[in-house]
Amino acid sequence: MTDVAVVGSINHDLTIMTERHPLPGETVLGLEHFSGGGGKGANQAVAAARLGGSVSMVGRVGDDDHGASLRSSLTREGIDTSHVVVDPVSPTGLALITVDSAAENTIVVSPGANSRVDVAQIETSRHLLASARVVLCQLEIPIEAVAAAAGLADGIFCLNPAPGRELPQELLDRVDVLIPNLTELARITGLAVSDARSALSSARQIEGPGAVVVTLGSEGALVVDGDRGYHIAAPQISAVDTTGAGDAFCGALAVALAGGQPLIEAVQWAMVAGALATTSIGAQTSMPTTEQVEVFITTNGLPALT
User: Fold this and answer.
1) Could you give the CA distance from residue 36 to residue 13 in angstroms, rounded to a whole number?
2) φ, ψ dihedrals at 137, nearest 5°
């Protein structure tokens, strides 16, 4: 049985380091640049695989060099790519990323083949999605495909609603664990969200999901489970590049839930994985291993619950 089936995007990332992000109409000289695998779906699949999960990827790449390279890279991570379709029309998705001296990033994504993941493709993965312990989705593929995956999931269905947008109630009703950040939470609820207190109030307004886990970056995370709300502090760590940190968190959370961990403990464990991902440059290249997470926890303990 597959622990985690990830349904989502697969991109080629091009990242440029810079002292600061340009203003509109401005050109700035960057520092070093590099390219590699990305896409929220693929990033989360790599994170889950490196943390010991049995992982399958459902997605789409172009019939080009980037697509072939990305499929091979996922396979080397131990991920089942038999459900990754090679599209004969659209190119592989591309993400342009800038990372400033404060480790904050801006990202522009051209979806390419990701935009052609459709309900028919999801239906061909019916058996996989029905048998996986956790199905994990994002919103870099068409929402109709995400809804179809949610409908086929018999295990735990987790949705990372990124990039943020309003969500249909029918989809929210199928979600077991919703994992937004502050910006995405605001888009879902239509409410102003600026800090942990307003995030807690907003998350409680969402009807449908079994639980809502709000990532707060350096402020940690909130867990809203029914009437109960918890804050989990962020691990203390020196960040280099925050690209992929949220994906590391989501992949780790999926693996922990697939392994039967209670939600709070799963979030604490995932917080460490997300923090460790900020200590290296890049997305998939920065995803930590189980050993790295356990060494950190042995030395520092789990993030505090308040």
Assistant:
1) 5
2) -125, 165
- For residue 281, pLDDT over 80 is answered with no
The C-alpha torsion from 167 through 221 and 298 to 42, rounded to 10°, is: 30
Catalytic residue among 3, 80, 241, 247: 247
Of 6, 38, 13, nearest to 117 by C-alpha is 6
Summarised one tens digit per residue, pLDDT across range 45-76 is: 999 999 999 999 999 999 999 999 999 999 99
3-state class (DSSP) for residue 117: coil
Could you tell me how many helices (H) and strands (E) the chain has, helices first? 11, 13
pLDDT of residue 202 exceeding 80, the answer is: yes
Structure tokens belonging to residue 17 = 């380091």
Q: Is 247 in the active site?
A: yes
| pLDDT tens digits along 96-119 | 989 898 888 888 889 999 999 999
Q: Which two tokens stand for residue 141?
A: 């593929």
Pairing, β 80-87 against β 55-62: parallel
When comparing pLDDT for 107 and 24, which is higher? 24
Q: Which two tokens stand for residue 41?
A: 């779906």
Give, to the nearest 10 degrees, the angle between helix 182-189 and helix 196-203. 40
- Cα(169)–Cα(32) distance, rounded to whole angstroms? 44
Q: What is the pLDDT of residue 25?
A: 94
Cβ within 8 Å of residue 272, ≥6 positions away: 235, 252, 293, 296, 297, 302, 303
Q: Kindly report whether the peptide bond that precedes residue 163 is cis, defined as omega within 30 degrees of 0.
A: yes
CA distances from 115 to 111, 139, 141, 238, 288 (A): 6, 10, 5, 36, 29
Q: Is the pLDDT of residue 80 over 90?
A: yes
71, 84 contact by CB (below 8 A): yes
